[in-house]
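Reading a protein record of the kind used here takes only a little practice. To see the layout at work, look at the sequence and tokens printed below.
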Amino acid sequence: MLGESRAKVVTELLQELNESVSGSYVEEAPEVLIDDNPQFFSAFDLVIATQMREQDMVKLDSICRSTARATLLVVRSYGLVGYLRASLPEHRVVESKPDSQLDDLRLHAPWPELVAFAASFDLDSLDDVGHAHTPYVVLLLQAAERFRSAHGGRGPGSQSADRAAFRAILNSMRRTVDGVPLTEENFDEAVKAAFHISTPYAIPSEVRTLLDDEAASPGGLRPDSDDFWVLVAALRAFVDNEGAGTLPLEGSIPDMHATTDMYLRVQHLYREKAERDVAAVEAHVRQLLTRLGRPAGAIPHDTVRLYCRHARHLRCVRYRTLAEETGTGTARTASLASALIPGGSGYGGSELPPGCCDAALYVLLRAADRFHAQTGRYPGATGPEADPGEDVPLLRQAALQVLSEVGLGGGSNPRKSPDSSSGASGAALNEDLLFEMCRAGAAELHVVAAFMGGVAAQEAIKLLTRQFVPLAGTLIYNAMAATTTVLEL
């Protein structure tokens, strides 16, 4: 394969991994396609750009947002540094699948049917088997009623005294033999889940932000609005009306120590309430669609149900353009300055050795592109016999230009280590980092490229499937310190 086109060889090898997938290649420099044939990118939902210079990435970003309407994922491996950035106007996620989540049981403010179901149990008349297999939802609601009776109608709060008193009531409801409580797993579950009773319902802040978003407001909805925003508007109408400040019930319940019949009865109650909530949201959806001049059934029932089931975890990530991130007057100077301060969010923690500043590597990557624009090569890429340190002064000047353009100035003493520099720019101009960038000579090291390829693949799947939440900023991988940082720029 030596001497053959890399595009041709890579395409053939990739197709061998999965014969059912077809692929093609174009033997043309990306920069030429960007300048001469921007329509080329309209054929793709996702464009992954690798090892491209800043000025070309800015052009491609503009094309993907306007002409192609495609998602752009920029990936780069430069020596011991990796870079990744997604770019699109907004990315909407329904199934964000958080690592951990609380069960949506609504025990702090239960609906009437659930209250009536819990009240129908006479625990004292049950035999030992029935008592030990009563669902803990019933135990918690009955204990809450006993607490209210003993405290003037007030329910248990989150104070430690209330929590202790509520647990005492729960434990007093256990069966005993000669004064010794029996081992009842359902009561153990109830004690662990007691916080559901004392914790008031609250809409997650990220979802509240979505509900209040202009795109979901009566004035923001348009006939061509994405279904996501129509459904968010319907959810807001539900919260303001039928939900009385709550989102639709998810309808799922966790495992409980109970008989099959009892568990299915509890499950039926939750599913029935969830279906009523779905119906109410769907009615709002139809009203909104009609007002927008769209068919009332344009959004199917299954989609409405999906949104209701995942209402607590809806997300929308908006991305600034690369031109805004890198442009004079539009760059987020304060965010970058904060990240550049030793021990700050972009430094990876003050315990790292001097010079390991991830945000500084971001600045130096941009400076390397500036160096290339001025000289036609990357710093240090002068041959095996050359001294890479010879390019440090010119790279430092390029870094000063980048810092100046984003409003950070150049720093009074650029040779200071970042742990002793009083200014953010000192971290970016650390001598060790400058030399490392020159020593790398823009080499694409296998270990860094493999790591960044794995991260990029994961982010690409998130963007295409709209499951899980993708990175909302610029990721910098520092292989020298084995750290990653996401910069919100």
Observations:
- Confidence is low (pLDDT under 50) at residues 347-356, 411-422.
- Residues 112-198 form one domain.
- The chain has three domains: 37-89+319-487, 112-198, 205-317.
